[in-house]
Amino acid sequence: MEAVERVLRSGRLAQGLQVEEFEALFASYIGSKYAIATSSGTAALHIALLASGIGNGDEVITTPFSFIATANAILFCGAKPVFVDIDKDTFGLDPSLIRARITSKTKAVLPVHLYGQPCDMKEILRICRERNLILLEDACQAHGAEYRGQKVGSFGIGCFSFYPTKNMTTGEGGMITTDNGDIAERARMIRSHGQKERYIHEVLGYNYRMTDIAAAIGICQLKKLDEFNRQRIEHARFLSERLDKITGLSVPFIAPDVKHVFHQFTIRVTRDFRMSRDELKQKLKDKGIVTEVHYPLPIHKQPVYKELGYNASLPNAEKACAEVLSLPVHPLLTEEELDYIVETIKNI
Ligand SMILES: Cc1ncc(COP(=O)(O)O)c(C=O)c1O
Questions:
Q1: CB of 37 closer than 6 A to ligand 1?
Q2: Is 170 in the pocket of ligand 1 (CB under 6 A)?
Q3: Angstrom distance (rounded) from CA 218 to CA 18
C-alpha cells in the first residue's frame, strides 16, 4: 500500500521507473536476460507470438487443456492452434504426440505448465531443436516452478500472468521473459503501438503496457513469491498425505526432477468414488469449502472453437475435464482449515 501511494504521489503512473525495476528483478528471478512487462498474461502471449513472427497461416502446437487465453492468443495472430493431447499424470502437453502433428506450416510449440507443474521440457526442447521450431512457454500458472533446477519461462520465450489468483499478483498484469535481444526489442515495440521512438510507428502494435501502480505491487509480491510458493507446497503435501488413500480420488502426481508450485491443488474424482465430481463439489460448497473445475471443457470443444471447425477427439484432455477438482491450497490457509477440508472429504 505504501509502494502504491509512493507511485501515486510521484505523478508518473504508467510505464515508468517502477515498471523498469520490476522487469529487471523479474528477469533476474527467472534467470533470463530480458523481461517485458505487459497489461495481462493474455497480452504477454499475444505479444510473444507476434514478436516471434507468428502470423497468418502458421500453425502452433499447443494443449487443449488450459485456460482459453493460451489458444486464443494464437488465433489473434491469424495462426492456427493445433491441439495435441496431454499426459494424463502431469496434465501437460504429451511430447510423444507432438511429432505426428508437425507439418510444413508448424512454426512453434506452446506448452502450458498447468497448475504450477512444469511440462517435460527435455523432450519438448529436443523436438523444437530437431525440427527448428520456436519454443514459447505459457508459465501463467507457474511462477518459480523449476524443471531440473531451471526456472520455467527460461527454456523458451516465457509468458506469465499476474492475475489476482496467481502465485503472485499485480491486480492485472503479465510478463514476457527471453534471452533473445531481438525478440525483446520487438516485444517492447508491439507493447506500445509499434514505436521505438515517440510517435514513429514502425510495426502494428497495441496498448499492452503495465502501469507503475501495478509494477509497484509486483515488486513487493516478487519478494514474497518464494515464501508464498513454500506455503503452497506445504499445504499440497498436507492434503496429499491425508487424501491419498481414498477410493476414487487421486491426489496430484509430481513428476521427478520438478518443483511443482501448486498454483492449483487438483485432484481427480473417478468413477470409483461414491458420488460424481459435481456432487462432491456441491457438498463441499454446502460445508463452506469453495472448489473449482479447471477446466470443465477442453478448448477444442469450446463453442467458439467448434464454430471454427475443430472436432478432434483428445481423450486424455476430455477425461481430465470430467474428473478434475481444485481444492483450496493458497498461502493464507491455516492448519485448522486444511484439517477441515480433509475431514469434510473423509466424512463425505
Ligand atoms: C494458463 C493460462 N494462460 C493464460 C492466462 C491469461 O492470463 P491473464 O488472465 O493475465 O490474461 C491465464 C490466466 O488467467 C492462464 O491460467
A1: no
A2: no
A3: 9
Q: Quick one: 178 exposed, middle or buried, by C-beta within 10 A (0-12, 13-18, 19+)?
A: buried
Q: Which of 163, 170, 175, 261 to mutate to test the pocket of ligand 1 (most atoms within 8 A of CB)?
A: 163
In short, whether 67's Cβ falls inside 6 Å of ligand 1 is yes
Cβ of 69 less than 6 Å from ligand 1: yes
Cα separation, 23 vs 170, whole angstroms: 13
Cβ-contact 116, 153 below 8 angstroms: no
Is the Cβ–Cβ distance between 42 and 73 less than 8 Å?
yes
Q: Which of 67, 115, 117 to mutate to test the pocket of ligand 1 (most atoms within 8 A of CB)?
A: 67
Q: Which three cell numbers stand for residue 315?
A: 481423450
Q: How many CB atoms lie under 10 A from the CB of residue 226?
A: 14
The crossing angle, in degrees rounded to 10, of helices 181-191 and 41-51 is: 120
Instruction: Compute the average pLDDT of residues 243-253.
Output: 95
**Residue 54, pLDDT above cutoff 90:** yes
Q: Which residues contact 213 (CB under 8 A, 6 or more apart)?
A: 4, 7, 8, 13, 18, 171
Q: What is the pLDDT of residue 245?
A: 87
What is the average per-residue pLDDT within 253-259? 97
Residue 5 Cα to ligand 1 midpoint, Å, equals 27
What is the largest distance, in Å, between two alpha-carbon atoms of the chain?
65
